Amino acid sequence: PYDGPPKEEVIAMRQQFLNPAIFHFYKQPVLITNGHMQYLYDEKGRRFLDAFAGIVTVSVGHSHPAVMKAAADQLTKLQHTTTIYFNEQTSLYAKEFVERMPKNSNLSRVYFVNSGSEANDLAMLMARLYTGNNNVVALSNGYHGTSVGTMGLTALHTWKYPVAHGEGIVHAPCPMSFRGTHGDDVDAYVRDLNNVIMTQTSGRIAGFFHETIQGVGGGVPLLDGYLPKAYEAVRAAGGVCIADEVQTGFGRTGTAYWGFENQGVTPDIVTMAKGIGNGFPLAAVVTTPEIAQTLAQRLHFNTYGAQPVVSAVGRAVLKAIDDDGLQENSLRVGARLMQRLKTLQDKHDLIGEVRGKGLMMALELVTDRATKVPAKEETTVIFERLKELGVLIGKGGLHGNVFRIKPPMCFSEADADFLCDALDLALSEL
Ligand code: PMP
């Protein structure tokens, strides 16, 4: 049972002492005090089905027994040193981590950090050092972080402050079906990318950043067939290709362990965060030995990167994904979810598009399917109603009219059905 201060006090203290930029979901906020696998509990013991996983972060399940044990065991032995000494957990984690990279790749050197923003900053630095070029290209509607560097990679005005950020970064239009400037014409988006390189950079670039399915931007999968052609264009301009797998990695798409594998490409640098640590502050940049070497020309250091407890947790997460069959589960349950959501789309005109892969799904709500006017208010009403019905999902997209469904990967078919039944009810009540 919960023995902390009353909910009203918790809310009041947060409002008084935390920075007001830290936003929250729901008109009547929820206080979450416990979690187990795909379920969350509030202070009164009410259970919620968690279909957002702390923003795609709790990959293997809340308080997963094996992850808890790994953290507890390591805490009793050694809580912290830094990489200036050797520790077996960090070395074992690096080895087991690199073993998960695609077999045909040369992605064999990892640098562990603490957040996705940090990982992308480091990737951008390595791309510049390796190529000797400065310009970086990212995609419109993408999200890569909030640091001064990665705010520049992010291409959603809602996340950008009116200060100098992301020096040397330009954007190419995102190859997206529903709201893209060229519909499904992959070659047109590749021409756009080449135009951006030719007109907004020196013609020689350091690198190209992309998510394979955009997360914050509203669960937008890049059109099939785009990445092989984009990688060719980027490499012809001297750049390296950087896949941001912060949301799409670790089996979530079901059809592959890494999101980029779905388009048959091999990046030169891959960044990860969120699901890699199941909620512990852990992120990574993996690259080739040649690119990694460029960082060794100066001192580089990160106090918490791959510290012993976090490394032990990271190892337990990798093992849980294998032992619990979570990639296969994402594939199976994701297929069920997709089928049920498509049926809801047939029934409810408000659902403009259902998209995604595995357990990374999105529904975009529109007031009119022809004009695609974002159904912002309706999205908010349904979002609040789902919470009342016991289902927590995510919201996103530039217009705030996209539901994001990205649960812990232990989500079951029964959970998918419960979510869809609740959604059906909420939509019918409108
Ligand atoms: N890249 C992607 C694709 C993300 O979704 C996020 C976080 N939403 C980040 C990078 C930044 O990660 P962090 O919040 O850990 O800095």
TrEMBL record:
Cellular component aspect of the GO annotation: mitochondrion
GO BP terms in the entry: glyoxylate catabolic process; L-alanine catabolic process, by transamination
An example Gene Ontology molecular-function term: pyridoxal phosphate binding
Root EC class: transferase
Coiled coil: none
Keyword terms: Aminotransferase, Mitochondrion, Pyridoxal phosphate, Transferase, Transit peptide
Domain of life of the organism encoding this protein: Eukaryota
Subcellular location: Mitochondrion
The keyword Calcium belongs to this UniProt entry's keyword annotation: no
Needed co-factor(s): pyridoxal 5'-phosphate
Keyword Acyltransferase tagged: no
Signal sequence residues: none
EC number: 2.6.1.44
Family the entry assigns: Belongs to the class-III pyridoxal-phosphate-dependent aminotransferase family.
Subunit structure: Homotetramer.
Identification of the protein by name: alanine--glyoxylate transaminase
Lineage: Eukaryota, Viridiplantae, Chlorophyta, Pseudoscourfieldiophyceae, Pseudoscourfieldiales
Portion held of the full protein: 107 to 536 of 536
